[in-house]
User: Fold this.
Amino acid sequence: MVFRTFKLSALFGFYWMTSCMVYAYAERFLLYYGFSTAEIGLVLALAYLASMLLQPLLSQAADREKRVTLKTGIVGCAILCILIAALTRVSARALPLLAISFGAMSCVTLAMQPLVNAVGFHYLNRGESLDLSFARGVGSVAYALASLLLGALASLHIEALLWVYIAANAALLLVALWFAPHRTACRAAEPVGNVFSLLRRYPRLLLFCVGTLVLNVPHMFINSYLKSITDVTGGDMSVMIAIAALVEFPAMIAYSHLRKRTGDRLPLLISACFYLLKTGLLLLAALVPVGPWAVYASFAMQMLCYAIFTPASLYYANDAVDPADQVKGQMLLTETGLLSGVVSMLFGGLSLSHLGVGTSLILCEGLVALGVLLVFIAARKPRTAA
Assistant:
C-alpha cells in the first residue's frame, strides 16, 4: 500500500505543479503581454468550455478502444502541453496566436485532471489498498511549492517562464507516470445515457450541482484573478496561494477519518458555510485598510472549505444515485466544475473591467450565500434516487 500510494502521490504532485501555471498564474502571464482582464476572461472561459468537450471524448475513446488506457491518455496530454508551450514561446509577440496557443494549453491541462484522478479511483474500485486522500494532499503541497517557485521565476524572466516551466513539469509528469501503478486500462463503464433523463430521475443531484456551480464561481474567480485582487487588498500573491495549498494537505488526509464518524453530509454543509467566511475576509481587505492579515486568513480558510467540500461532494454524488448510475453522476459533477470555470472566467473579466475589485467581491459574497442555500436544500437527505 505504501509504495503504491507513494507512486500515485508523485503523479498527483507533478500534475498539480503543471496545472498551477494555468490556474493561478494565467492572469499574471497574459497581463504582462498586454491582454485586458476582459480578454483574459474570454480566453480562459473558452479554454474551460473546450475542456468540457475534450474530457468526455477522452473517456469515450478509452471505453471504446481497449488499447487506450488512462496512462496513454495522460501521456498524450502531457506531450501536447510541451508542444503547445513551445508554440507560445514562438508566438509571444503575436497576441491572437498567443491567446490561441495559451488557451489550447490550458484546455489540455484541464482535460487531463479527471484522467489523473481516475488512476486512483481505478484502484479503489478494484478493492486495492492505497491512500487516495494522502496522494491528493501531496498534490496540494506540490501546488503550494509551485506557486512559490513561479512567483520567484516571474520576477526574474517572465517571457521564458511558461515554456521552461511547463516543459519541465510535463516531462517530470511523464516520468512519474512511468513509475505509477500499472494496468490502468479503463474498466468497463456504464454507457452514458441521456443527461436529461438522469437529471429527471435525480432532481436533488441537479440542485446540488447547481449549488456547487454557484459556490465554485467566486472561488475560481478569486484564484484566477488574484493579481488584480492583490493590487487592491495587498499581500504577496505567491504566499497566499502557497498557504491555501499547504493547509489543504492535513484536511484532505483527515477527511477519510472524519467521514467514518460523521458521514459526508455534515462536513459538506459546514464546509459550504466556511466559503462565506473565506470570501468575506477578502472582501473586508478590499474595502477597509486592515492590512494583509485578512488576506492571509482568508486563504487559510481553504482548510475548512475547499479541502473538505471537494471530497465530501464526490462522496455525496456517489451516494445520491443508484449503483448503475454512479459513473454518470460523477461525470455530471466533473462537468459542473468545468462549467464553473467558464462562468467564473467570464464573470471575472467583465466585472473587474467594469465594476472593480470591491464590487466584484461583494457580488461574490452574494453568490456564495446563494450557493450555500442551494447546497443545504439539496443535501437534506443523503440519497436522492426517485
